[in-house]
Each structure stands twice: as C-alpha cells, then as structure tokens.
Amino acid sequence: MIRLEPRGQQSKLMAWVSPLLAALLMLASGAILFLALGRDPVEGLYTLLILPVQDLYGISELSVKAAPILLCAVGLAVVFRAKIWNIGAEGQLLMGALGGGYVALKLIDAQGFWVLPAVLFGGIMSGMLWAMLAAWLKTAFNANEILTTIMLNYIALNLLIYAVHGPLKDPDGYNFPESAIFSYDATLPILIEGTRTHIGMAFALFGVVVVWVLLSRSFLGFQIKVLGLDQSAARLAGFREKHLVWISLGISGAFAGLAGVSEVAGPIGQLVPQISPGYGYAAIIVAFLGRLHPVGILLATLLMALIYMGGELAQINLGLPVALTGLFQGMLLFYLLACDVLINYRIRFGRSLPLTTTQGER
Amino acid sequence: MSNQIPRLRLSGITKTYPGCIANDGVSLSLEAGEIHALLGENGAGKSTLMKIIYGVIKPDKGELFWDGVPIEISSPAEARRNGIGMVFQHFSLFETLSITENIALALGDEAGDLDRLASRIKEVSQHYGMALNPDRDVHTLSVGERQRVEIVRCLIQPISLLILDEPTSVLTPQEVDALFVTLRQLANDGCTILFISHKLNEVKALCHNATILREGRVTGNCDPQIESTTRIAGMMVGEDTPLSTEYPKVQGAEIALEISDLNLRSDEPFGTNLKHLNLQVRSGEILGIAGVAGNGQEEFLAALSGETPLNQAKIIQFNGNDISRFRPDQRRRLGVGFVPEERLGRGAIPEMSLTENALLTGYDMPLKTAGMINFSACRSFARKIVSSFKVRCSGIESEAQSLSGGNLQKFIIGREVLQSPKLLIAAHPTWGVDVGAATAIHKSLIELRNQGAAILVISEDIDELFLICDRLGAICHGQLSPFKPTLETDISEIGRWMAGDFATEVA
Amino acid sequence: MDIDLVTNILYAMVRTGTPLLLVALGEMVCEKSGVLNLGQEGMMLMGAVAGFVAALLSGSLVIGFLLAIVAGVLMSALFAILALGLTANQVATGLALTIFGTGLSAFIGADYVGHPIDGLEPILIPLLFEIPIIGRMLFAQDLMVYLSFVIFIAIYAFFRWSRPGLIVKAVGENPDAANAIGLPVLKTRFLAILFGGAMAGLAGGYLSLAYTPLWAENMSAGRGWIALALVVFASWKTERVLLGAWLFGLASILHLVIQGLGYRVSPNLLAMLPYVATIVVLVILSSNSARSKLVAPVSLGKPFHVSK
Lengths: 362, 507, 308
What we know:
Strand order of the largest sheet of chain A: 1-2
Order of helices and strands of chain A: EHHHHHHHHHHHHHHE
Helix content of chain C: over 70%
Distance between the termini of chain C: 65 Å
Shape of chain C: globular
Strand content of chain C: under 5%
Oligomer: heterotrimer
Order of helices and strands of chain C: HHHHHHHHHHHHHHH
Helix content of chain A: 55-70%
C-alpha cells in the first residue's frame, strides 16, 4: 500500500527536485506521445530539445523567445509571492505593446536617443496601469483578481485588434490590419550582430537581479511575502495591505508591459494582431516551475523557450500541429503540481511508522 | 459494580504520528452509568484517545471491547450505531443550517422526516432541561446553546456512552452547573459518560472515577472524590513540575490606555457589534477581561490593535496620544505590543523561520536600514528571544510550525516583551499550552507588569485571570461589565457578568 | 423596437446563454462543495473538440454529446486527483487544467478546423412556440436548451429538498465538522468535481455541435471564465445562475442588436462587451464584503486533508 505521510516541515530539497522531476516526466510523456503518433521518440525529443539550439543562430533565437517570458515571469514572481493571482500578464503584455507602439507611431518622424526610452516608458506605463486597474478593482471593490485580470486579457486583445483595424492602421498598408513599421530610433538595438538577439534580453536579466534583491533583501519584499503567507499576520504587523496589492501588481504589470513593448519595438517592429503566442500564460507556468525565485525562473524560462522553438520545428520537421507547445506546457504544470506533493509529504510503502519523541498535539 | 462486564474496555491502545506518540499502550475501562474523567494536560493524548473510541482515527495497535465483545469502530457512523455519541471541543456544526438540518446530517438515513425530527429534538431537549428551538439557524445561537445542540444530537438516538471533550471551557460557571445537572441525570438513566478535562475542580465535583494521562501514557487511576488534588495534579504534570504559584496583586499607577465609548459594527457575517465600551488600563497593572468566545473579543482586539480602523477621534487614547485612527504599525511605534489568539497565523508565519518571525513585528527595533533587511540584527534578536525565554527549538532557522504550541507561544510573548512595550495586549496567552509553558508565560507577564507596563489580558480561562490579573471584568454580547479589583470579586460574580448580568454585588 | 426584433433577441439570448448556464451550474455545484475549479475553460474546450471529432467520425450527434461529457469528466478527474488526492493548490491546479485543455484540444482538433457538420436542429413545441414574444425563446429551441431547463430544475430541487444536497452544502461550509460527524468529505467533493466536469464538457459540446457547429481553436472564448464570475454574481443560488447566464447571453449578442437597430460601432469594440460586463458585475457584487462573505461557501478553495 502506498501512503502519503506528512513531513511536518517543508522539504527544501524537494522544492527544487520537484521541477526537475516534472520536466523529466514531461519528456517521458512526450516520448510516449511521439510513439503513439507513430513517430520515432528519439527523433521527436531531439527535434524538441537539441535541434533548436545546435548553433549560434538557434541560441540567439532562444534568447528572443526567452526575453518576454522571463520579463513576465519575474514580475509574476512578485505578485504570486503576495498570493495575488495575476493571470493577466498576457493582457498587460499586449497593453505594453499597444501603449509603446502608440508612442512609437506618434514619434515615427522623430529622431534622437530619447525616442526609444520614450517608447519603452510608454510600454512600461501601459502595462503597469493595466495591472493597476485590477489592483483598483480589488482594493476598492473587492473584485476577485483572477477573474478581472482574465477579463482584462480579453479586453486588451480586442483593443489591440481594434487599434490595428482602425485608428493605428498603416494608411499605406493596403488595408492589412497592421500599423506602420516603427522608425529606426524607436527600435531596440541588436546585441549580437547578425542575430535577432536584442537588448530586451539584457532588460530581462537585469529584471532577474532587481527582483532577487527585492524579494530576498528588502523589507518591501518581506512584507509582500508575509501578505502572501498570512493576510491577518500582515495586518496585525501593520503592513499596509492595499499599498502592497497596488505595488506588487504594478511591478508585475510594468515587467509585462516592458515585455510587450520589447516585442513590438524588437523582433516584430510594428503593431500586428498576433503579438504573443501566449507568453503571458507561459510565464505563469515558468513562475511556478522556478519556485517564484528569480534564478529558478531564469532556468525555467530557458526550458519554456525551448519548448516554443521545438514546437515550431516539430511542425516543420515532423508534421505535428504547433499546438504541441501548449500540450507540453500544460503537462509540465500538471506534473509540477503533482510532484510538489513531495515537498510536504513523503511516500511510504506499507504500514511502517517512524517512532520519535512525543510532542504536543498541535 | 466491579463484577459486571464493563461497557467499554480499551486495551493497549497505541497511536503514533510522525514525530510524536499520541497514545502509548493506553488501557481504560468504563462501567454502565459511570461518569469517568479522562484527565491530562494539553498534549497528553486525550483528544486522540476519544477520537479513536469514536471511530474518527484508527489506532495502530490495541483492542476495544464493547460489552465484553471485541469490536473495531471504523467510522463515526459505526460508533453511533453502537450507541456512542460525542460532543467535540470545536463544535462540528454548520452555521448556515438550522438545528434540525444539523442533526439530520449526523443521523444519516435514520433522520427521516424533518418535521418529525424537529419535534423529537424539542422533546429530548426539554426532557434534559436544555430548551432549544429546532428551527433556528446555528449561527444565531450562543456558544452554550451550540453545545446543547451537540449534546441533543447525541441523545436523539439510543445512547449508552457519551463522550464530552473539554465541555466546560466554553461555558460560564453557571452554565457549567446546569450542564452537570444534565450529565448526572443521564448517568442515572444508565448512560456512561466519558468526561475529558484538564480542570481538577470540575472532575472532583462531577466524576466517579478518573484516569490520568501524561505524554500518551496512563499515569494513574483514582476516585477523584477521595484522592487529594496534589496527588492527581502530580500524576497529570509529573512530580517535578512546579505547580501554580500565587502572584501578589498590585494597584496601577497613571492611566496608560483609555477607551471612551467605543462603538463598532462588525462586518463579519456572524460577528458581534461592540456597544459603548469604556475601559482604563493603568501602568503597572494587569487588567483581565473574561468572557465566553464569540462575545465581541475578536472585534474588540481588532479595534485595539488597529486592524479595524476607527473613523472617530478620542475613542482610544494611549499615554496622552489619541491613537483612534492609528494603524497597527503606528500604535506599535508608540510602544504597544500584541499577542494574538492564533499563534500559527496571526502571531507567527508557520512557513517562516524564527529569524523571519522575529522581524515580523520587531522591524522597528530597528532590524532594517534604508528599506533593506539587516539579517544579522534579526538573527541576534531571534537568538535573544530563544535564550531568554527558553524556547525549545532546533535553532533560529527552524520553521515556526515545527515548534510545539507552548514553545511557539513563549517565542511570541518573548518577541513582544523584549521590545519593552508600555502596553501589552494579550489574547488567550496560555490557550492550549502545557503547564510548564503557561507558568513561564505568566511569570513573564507579571515581570513586565512589575517593570511598569500596562497589560490587558483577554481570556476564556477564568482561573488564569484570577491568577494573574489585578483587576477583572467580563465581556458579553459586545458590552463590558464593570471592573473590580480581583481581590474584591469572586468566580460567581464574574460568571454572572460573563452571562450578561452586570449588576455588582454590594461589597 | 418592433415585436419581431424583441422575439428574436430573446430567442438568441437563451440560445447564447445556454452554454454559460450549463457550465455555470456545474461549477456552482462544485463550489458549493468547497472546491474552486478554475479549469472550466479547459474542460469546455476538451468537451467541444471531443464532441465535434466524435460526431464527425461517427456521424451521430448523440455520440458527440456523450463523448463531450466523457471528455469533461476525464479532465475534471485529473483535477480531482491533484486537488483532492494530492491536496495541490486548487487555483494552480485549475489554471493548469485550463492551460492543458487549451493545448490538448488545439492539438487534437488541428486537423478538423473548418470542417462543417450538421448541428443540432431546433424542435418547435406545438402551439406553445406561437406564444407572442416568449414563445420562440422558450419553445422553439433545440434539445440541449430544453435539457438545460431540466437540469436547472433538477439542481434547484437537489439543493432545496434532498439530503445529498444538504451534505454538499455542509461539506462546503465546514469539512472538518462534516468529517467529524462521519460525512464522506472527499467522496462528496470528488463527485461534485466530476459533475462540474460533465456539465462543462456538455457546454463545450453545445458550442461545437449546436451553437456554431464547427471546431475552432479556443472557441469557448472565455465562457468558462465568465461562468466563474457568473457563480459569484448568482451568490451561489441556482435561480440566479439562470438569470445571470441569460443576461450574459444578452450582453454577448448586444452587437447584433445594435447593428440591427442600425448603429455602426466597431465589431471589435462590441466584442469586448461580455468581458466588460463581467468586470462590472464583479464590482457591483463584491463591493459589499460582508455580504459576499455571507453567501460564499465558507471553505471554498481550501484543501481538506483527513488525518487517519
């Protein structure tokens, strides 16, 4: 008989083993899936994991995919620590793209070093304000943030589609739903010549450091963690709950907004209806997989970006639907949640019981 | 009686949890019509043992005999089929449902037609002198009434063993007397009663027989009417534990905390509104407020701590400052400390280390500079708490949830006391902790008082309040009784105040 | 506004509200037992794709609907194993279910996008459907709409009069007490989750087999999430779920109404209406915190672990 037995204390080791286990289980399931679809599992996993990053070009493409995911996920690490369920990184990313794109289009004829910062600022602010909308709804009206942020995602997407069909449509664009292409000065510089690796990846790595300092060293981060672990303790300790909600959602939205504007001012170069293949949702998985820790998130981001690239290659090389990516993402999160049981429980076979000292009942 | 086959006999019951043996070879025998006490302090394994009898928990080892026949009770439903009923310490009632619905749920399919059940409830409750209106929703009932529902729920079916887990801890002294009348009547009708308690005087007043548990083992068996209190207490806590001390009562100095006409509407669904509260706590005295849970204590504490903001001025004044509109951190900065009721949760974050829990309220010691945490200061503060309050733990990096209740409570009290508060507000400071820790906590409160701090203690434990407080009062239905020096009042007067009868005896 | 327009609006309102009603009723039962399953969207999508593929391959709508239900139940069982069996966080598990369902449904349905099938036909109930204004709304719908009426009445009666209904409520309010008096907490919650899955699957099937008889990626378009808001809107009361679902149905077809009345507004802006309406409703319903605490199942979303 297999039983779960409470450990009493959380296992620090298992907290980090569990994501690895989950990734392995995902790959094992992937191999079985390839087999079931009549493909060679070795070739399938090779296409998914190795093929995308076997040359410099591949690695640079990985960074292009990783930058927006990493930005969204480090932001989510902050709100999720406060147990505020911001499911709206996708919408905040889209609003960042739309807001930043709006500035870029207004400045399309402007020149100078200040243009790009203005565009980025527009993006960051748009993402932040979009997230703070949810903070306002939560603090002023007690509206559940899961539902409001999801709804704001749908609204943001429709706003973007409306914008590229209407007010921000390129007048010389043959009626395609796209904006004009941004000017050179409003575009992110390339970091490595001959690739698409742009400065957004540097922003993301900087974000990792900032969030690490915030969560591990600052009193603000401590307050955010306390709020997430026990609201009533935070209240009794005199931490200002509403402020913390505003701040943590604002931080998360700002990062997602930066991710969005970095996409349109980076690899895309203009506003289009399809800006994100679900980066904001993938970031949720990444945040959990990385244990809400900036370094863990960095590693999880690389895996997630790889799955995105692998999914595209699997479509080209193996003729599988690109939706493979979403399937793997879902499996990954499921396995993670299942493996996480090992943090609080150990698995026992049979009815053996350890005998130790007597303690209080509580 | 002794020749009879006992109604229930336990033999060698053992139950182990990771890190703790709750019951270790416990044997016990109960006769028909007997009121049997199961005595022991918190954590002795009483609750585990009766949950085993009631089929909630399975023992690892040992046997149960019902009327001499070995049985295995695998669920509460099976226990009830055998005629075993149980009244839990934390009531197992559903607030949004009516009394009839609550009882119907526990009875299972035998509940039958709800109207007929309702009239049965009325009948049974009247027979045993516990009037109840079966149509009322549980959330409208007082704690005492809820306990009656629990008891009536057991009596609706034929019953031969009734287990009560610390039934008096939620009652006023007068309600306790009424409960004892009911229990004696039941025992006379032939029902066996297993009465779980840690209060010696009650056991002596009610029970025919007592079994004493300590650290999961039976340490004695006696007739409490005959055996001396000291002997029984020795069996409960071990011979080497010093028993309760007396503390000298004092008069306070100048007024530290003054509350003038505090009115507050609760926004909790089943909360209590506070009405015209007036109160003064002086420096160098301990003021105690007795009361049955749910009479406004939580709301009052939240108003005192600043968790519930007040929007009027001059309601709460502290050392000449009007702190009515202050947030908890602002009040803390003026020298107010808090010990909340829930130690895991409000008082300490279960998943955080003791170091981090020291920072939780000690941040203005200061344990931070320019927004950054000073970890070495946090660690040395945590170490100081652990050493000066003898907190037993495996180090300051262990999680709060790994500590036993008594040790965690010592840590929380220590964290507040070492910040040298001018006013300490403590809710149920020794609730659920062992005698050793309780004594240590009481001593530290007295010491803090002697250093000139004002202390306000809210507790459900009258004995504790009489032990440590210099002045006493009670709260009932969100209203405060008058306050009297402890030496000029007695248990029966405080008991009447707890029941809402605020008339004072002419001294 | 002429009578024909009103009649048509009411007809479309009920038709559009039906998938919302089905999924919201299922989620309400689940939440009453104390379980918050945010995976509605994922279960609906799986129901939609499974139902569509099954109906296309078998040529039978009945088999299609059955498979839709089975898919929803299987998905919810996955949730139940994680959230009940392994006491995983319900919010995270529900999200995982939605992400997984979105991915898997897109994967399965990739080859079937754009295939047309013959959807469910309306059945006119003789005489009754000729009643002015409400005749078409209530008596000229397809079988699934009528079934949604039946399920609605059954759930209403379940909570109003039945003992199992009382048990579900008790388990949702205080699982520890329920366990102490011997009610089967985990079994009750497990069944409630499966019921929620069946209803979400059925709702998904309704989308791909009746409402718009085809499969498209993400075709539930947030209805699973709106249903979650609807349960809050309805304060966990069956009759208010019906009202809410129909009102949201109305919000979703408002663009048709506005266009029907001859106004020209961007369809992309009008498409936001149901989502904006959801937020507005949440704001109105949640702002009185005392009230919302009173109506929500007390233990909603909190895991329960039996110590034996």
